[in-house]
Amino acid sequence: MLGYVLFFVAVAALPVVWRLSGQRAAERYRRALERLDAEVRSGKIGADDASLPAGIRTVRQRLATGWMPVRGASPEILSRLAQFLQTAVVKPLVQALHARGRGVRPRIQQALDAIEDIEFYAEKPELERASVDVVEAVQGVAREFQKAFKVEVKLDLPGGPVPCRADLAALQDAVYMILANGGRHGGGEPIEVSLRNAGGEARLVVRDSGEGFSDEALGRATEPFFSTVAGALGLGLTHARYVVQTHGGTLEVRNRGGGGEVVVGLPVGEG
After folding, report:
1. Cα–Cα distance list, 113 to 4, 71, 165, 227 (Å)
2. pTM, full prediction
3. Whose CA is closest to 107, among 43, 56, 158, 48?
4. Which of 32, 87, 188, 259 could lock 231 by a disulfide, CB 3.0 to 4.6 Å apart?
5. Where do the structural domains in the chain lie, given as residue ranges?
6. In CATH terms, is domain 130-267 a member of 3.30.565.10?
7. Which stretch of DSSP H or E encloses residue 159?
8. pLDDT digits (tens, 9 = 90+) for 45-97
């Protein structure tokens, strides 16, 4: 829970991040938005897209409102957020200045998507439990992941249902983030997913074919804002662990067979 407290503090501290990460980054962001506004008004860009001005305003409003400065976030957390905002928000907005026609809107949308990522992790999910078949849930997530990442998922699933009392959307989000972690570190090789119902527990194992977790990552992989990928927030496995633990389960990272594994255990039952 301490990690999540630090996480929420860090998200609330985004204006502080801009100051700590240097005035030049913040100034580039402001200039980008001002120039985009001016070019839209002058008709130089986006003349055929009525939603573009609203999109620009949304970027500004989403970053400028609701996130009040809070003291106490660690320098490492602030540094990670600053890096993410610079690469995922400021950079595409600056690139949008030099684009024309259809090249403008996707870059603005990229910045909005990055902000939505932060907001998603900042919101504590309110879980609504119902009887869920973990087999069907995993199959659905695997399909979505393969479309998005273009990485094959090899499923080894039971022939019958594996019932669990869970929030389906939250559970699928957690599994997707585990798969995404494997996709980023697996070198494009297929990801192996197995599920078993054993001893009253649904045991889900997600294995990639990458280099495995480093010694540091084995101890910190689920820690908020820890990542070995440049520009990443490092919150996927943190969120997955939170969801799993909220359902009364466990999440473990380890190295097996030349790759990394994430092992999830969930209590089985419909009650």
Report:
1. 22, 26, 31, 19
2. 0.71
3. 56
4. 87
5. 2-122, 130-267
6. yes
7. none
8. 444 444 444 555 565 555 554 443 333 456 666 667 767 777 887 788 778 77
